[in-house]
Amino acid sequence: MAGDGAAGDAFASKVAAALLPRDVTAKQLGMEIRSVGLGRATLAMAVRPDMLNGHDVVHGGYIFTLADTAMAYACNSYNQNTLAQHAQITFVAPGQAGETLTATAREVTRGKRSGLYDVEVHGGDGRLVAAFRGATRTIAGMVSPALGAAPAN
Amino acid sequence: MAGDGAAGDAFASKVAAALLPRDVTAKQLGMEIRSVGLGRATLAMAVRPDMLNGHDVVHGGYIFTLADTAMAYACNSYNQNTLAQHAQITFVAPGQAGETLTATAREVTRGKRSGLYDVEVHGGDGRLVAAFRGATRTIAGMVSPALGAAPAN
Amino acid sequence: MAGDGAAGDAFASKVAAALLPRDVTAKQLGMEIRSVGLGRATLAMAVRPDMLNGHDVVHGGYIFTLADTAMAYACNSYNQNTLAQHAQITFVAPGQAGETLTATAREVTRGKRSGLYDVEVHGGDGRLVAAFRGATRTIAGMVSPALGAAPAN
Amino acid sequence: MAGDGAAGDAFASKVAAALLPRDVTAKQLGMEIRSVGLGRATLAMAVRPDMLNGHDVVHGGYIFTLADTAMAYACNSYNQNTLAQHAQITFVAPGQAGETLTATAREVTRGKRSGLYDVEVHGGDGRLVAAFRGATRTIAGMVSPALGAAPAN
Description:
4 copies of one chain form a homotetramer. Chain A is of the alpha+beta class.
């Protein structure tokens, strides 16, 4: 299970700081990292007018993208390159114009190569907007070779 | 199962034409409707530099958004307002900068309120990039009240 | 969210007691209800030799069936007939001959008609065997008309 | 994509014949292999009274088990040990007492280690009962070392 000690948090923050500048999508959509640790991450995204669909609510694609990105910071926090392989999302309540959505990713389980993460996306008033579950695969390489291996947890 | 007669196709095209102008996300992402019929739709999207992630491949969120939008045109083709409730995606191969992705949605089954759709996303060379399956719910209202009910199929 | 007060637990126990005698599959597979409350249930099942597959580990179908049944007791606990509509399972570790598997279902969210439940299946040593997520639909009728409506929570 | 040549079909039949005698669950549930080829399989199962749930329809667990088993014969047809890692099912219509359910598995995509399979379960009258999608992982070892490698396709 994911560590939540101070050393793990500090390490995960360094990995996130290395990942973020390369993450064109996260930047272009205005995502902010609110919190990160080994196996967990919380990201926020303010809804923009160009994120709406024909029903004037947030396009499900942007809700998915926020959740998927939160999972990416959680699963890459160990500094081992890790990709989403499968993801599932349930849309519970619409996201509204003008609010800020928050996605919190936590690790359900993590093996040598396979991981499973749950992400909940909440609206500005705290209601559940979507529940996301994603499966990841760890591949070769480190997010930041300079950082080396994650602290044991 | 979805109709593929000429009357159904013509009706679905009119519904899509009514939906598209309100669809800020589809327009902003440069999506094009290549083909539409009752219960089916094919959309294309050219990959832009701001759609890449830190690994220089297309962010999974944009692949999901394209697939989700193809499902939206397929499931709304009957002119009854229909929303995605659940969706699942498997990422098979990365999407690359400079290519055009194509998403083809087909109806697996459609009941009074619930529908199930499969979407395959292919790359410019025809390889399978992602397989998506979504469940929909029909709600009150028509996409375009002026168009009335879909032809029986 | 699911209530966990004593009145809710007592009510849920009565609903479960009404459901169990009709539940041929649960009985035939030797499932036992360990705990139940509004929106939650924990069931146990001892692995029998006829539940193994060709690799001498528990057939995934029985793990799914246990998880699905735990969800059924959780989502029917309000005494409103409720069915599984979609379910997803990730197999994390094999189940072994001779051990007792435990499935714990909790409510992620519950609306007027739609619910979402997470179930974790653990082995006799506490390891995670499978993670299950299911979506439900409430239909007409009560599990036990004599019990009436669930206490507000 | 799965081969459907005669050599592939013959090979897949031999693999299935090697797998079946070890498959206690399939035998105990009375499953029959109707057809098998490289990357595909069709299985049938007659509904027994002990497969019903409290609503007198087939327990979803048995429908899942049939679909999962069809996938197992499809994905193991290459004679490389392959396991289900994730699976998703949508219940479309109830299965009824006295009918025979048929599950047909087809390969969506297959890589070196990862595969994706769709399974449709139909009732005796041909209606769609459930749609299943599963993701597999190939592990070390052959189903039947004596059979060797599958014919190229």
